[in-house]
Structure formats: C-alpha cells, structure tokens
Write a structure and sequence with these properties.
With about 190 residues, this protein is mainly alpha-helical. It has 10 helices and 2 strands, in the order ααβαβααααααα. The chain has helices at about 5-10, 40-45, 60-65, 80-95, 95-105, 110-125, 130-140, 145-150, 160-165, 170-180, and strands spanning about 50-55, 70-75.
Length: about 190
C-alpha cells in the first residue's frame, strides 16, 4: 500500500495508527504549532542554517521570515511535508484573509464546497508535482472538511486567537514579507 492509499484510508477511518508507538511514519499532521514561535524569532535572526522538524510547517514558515540560506527539515511521518507544501502554495496564492479562512477559521460542512473549489483551485498551480498528486488524490474522494477533520490531522483544538498570536507570519506585514521571501527559496 503506497502513501496515497494509506492517507486515503486514514481519512476514511479504515486505517488506524500504530497504537504501540505514538509517532511513526504514518503519524498525524499537526494543524498548527504548539510552540510559542513569537518568542524564538529573535534567536533565529542572522542564522544562516536552520534544522527544523516539519510538524505543522509553522516553524519553517516563521523561520523563513529571518531569511536563512538553508533550512533542512525532517519529520518521522510521511504526511507533514505535504501539508507544508500546501501551506507554502497557499501563501503564494491566497490573501492573508483567505489563508486564515482555509487553515484556521472553523470549517463547517455547510461551506465545504467553497473551500474545495475556490481555494484549492487557486492553490494547486503552486504545488510541486508530488504534493499536487497527494492533495488531488484526497480531494477526488473527500471534501476539505472531511480531510482536515479526519485522523490524518491532530485532533488538538485550533483556537484562532492563539494560532494568530503564536505565528508571526500571520500578521499582515509578515505574511506578505514571507510571500516575497518564498519567491527566492526552494
């Protein structure tokens, strides 16, 4: 079974995580950071190289505000890299308000088509081929609401005010600064 089928089965609830280990190659994706990243940005200033766990991707996105030349990223799970790529493509494609609406605001079943059709169609041209294949495979069978609220993602509550406070890149100035920085980075 390849990673696309594994992800699909996790979203559908037909594949469950290995209960013997909390973290493994099929572990869930964090929706947001659980660190106070606003407290470490000053530490990262003038650092040329950064090594970072992918997790939710927020650590990497905030680190890119400091303009390092290299960020090496890793994760035990195979799925967070696809979420990071989705976030990067979203920053390149969406306004700050749209980004917050897509990733942070409460997604309800009533407006799931809005997220799927409007936002993803804007985002997908900026995805790398492997990430595009991953997300399109999931979107072929599921809504964003179903994907984002499935066991593929952490069930940790997402509180908008806390997520905005934790992530300097979600301020208007920094969001568009990050977009410019992403144009210069692979």
């Amino acid at each position: 079974m390849d990673y696309l089928d594994i992800a699909q089965n996790i979203v559908r609830g037909t594949k469950f995580y290995n209960k013997e280990t909390t973290f493994n190659e099929q572990s869930f994706i964090y929706k947001k950071t659980n660190e106070r990243l606003q407290d470490i940005i000053d530490i990262l200033l003038n650092k040329d190289k950064i090594l970072c766990v992918i997790g939710s991707g927020d650590q990497i996105l905030n680190s890119l505000l400091t303009k390092p030349s290299i960020i090496d990223a890793f994760d035990i799970s195979i799925f967070p890299k696809f979420f990071l790529e989705l976030k990067i493509a979203s920053i390149k494609s969406l306004s700050l308000e749209e980004y917050i609406s897509f990733f942070i605001d409460d997604i309800s079943i009533n407006n799931e088509d809005y997220y799927d059709d409007i936002f993803y169609n804007k985002i997908s041209p900026n995805l790398d081929n492997q990430s595009k294949e991953f997300w399109e495979y999931l979107f072929d069978y599921n809504s964003w609401y179903d994907i984002y609220n499935s066991p593929l993602f952490s069930s940790e509550p997402l509180i908008k005010s806390y997520a905005l406070e934790q992530n300097p890149y979600l301020s208007e100035y920094n969001y568009y600064k990050l977009r410019e920085n992403l144009k210069k980075k692979n």
